[in-house]
User: What shape does this take?
Amino acid sequence: MGAAARGAAVLLAREEARAKADGVRACAVSVRARAGAILAANRRDLAAAPHLSPALIDRLTLDEARIEAIAAGLDAVAALPDPVGAVIAAWEQPNGLRFERVRVPLGVVGIIYESRPNVTADAGALCLMAGNAVILRGGSEAAASNAAIHAALVEGLESAGLPAAAIQLVASPDRALVGAMLAAHGLIDVIIPRGGKGLVARVVAEARVPVLAHLDGNNHVYVDAAADPAMAKAIVLDAKMRRTGVCGAMETLLIDRACPDAASLITALLDANCEVRASADLMPLDTRLILASDSDWDTEYLDAITAVILVDGVAGAVDHIARHGSHHTDAIVTADPTAAARFLTEVDSAIVLHNASTQFADGGEFGFGAEIGIATGRLHARGPVALEGLTTYKNIVRGTGQVRG
Assistant: This one.
């Protein structure tokens, strides 16, 4: 598979933007045409997955609307500007040498992911549009769904005259094949893990291939004393309850000790059937509260559960996030521009928001069409990884016979 992907990557690197876009659009057509088969495959996966948590069931479940969203996401990717060949910088030296830094594909990308069959389509389309071949290894719980979506993608590629090996799927559930991908130095240029802590930890520990890590989303919303009460309530409820199983969901609510509306925020969450684990000083506010333990501040629940704690202003919020956050997504709600500026500057996360829900941590919401994942490290790419994050660059130097002598 690696050798086939390498050959496909060479061909894709030569393709014009229109050819790649036509291929992605053909994949979208095929996904729509095969919607019935994809739904049937998804039902088989769901029937075999009663042991999964509600959050994972939500990630796994497909319906007609979600399949249309997958196809629409493919169309959106096809409409994006091609990053390959873009000149990032250009300059000339006094000796007459002219330099250009130009975007080029990464080559062969390996993606290891869990639960979400939509990643099969998103990852395939993004890698293709960026001129890369991709080897996908989804979780066993979504095996049938992934295979059905992959079949649609291959049909689209072939109808557009692009190599089928550009998007390959490791169909076997054998975990040893993950190890084979991690050791495939020379065949795979970068590995992107998308899943729980266990998966990411294994990939980081074992990989002999560079890793672009997507870590857990222990995300925070900080409600400042200067927050508009109605806005704060709307943002907190959306950040936690819109979809509890996505990586952009709020897991900890930080409330300024000077905020006059702490009780109403907590009541709103409880009334929305969210379990609230609170610090000791908040316990008298409502009999439904559960006393938080130290581990709650470090937990990504991916469920209708949140931790809540009072902090001393922006400084307290920044300090709490520094000690417990995962550098994914954190938000401040405030009408004070000074407080907002300090939070946005000092919180070291891939995505920081002012007066907006953390659920906007999504490549589509950024205008990227789709995403491979949210990169939380500091190297190469950070935040939603889309087309530009799937490229690197080379330096092109043009001379007129110069020698160093």
About this structure: The chain has 13 helices and 16 strands. The mean pLDDT is 94. The first strand starts at residue 87 and ends at 92.
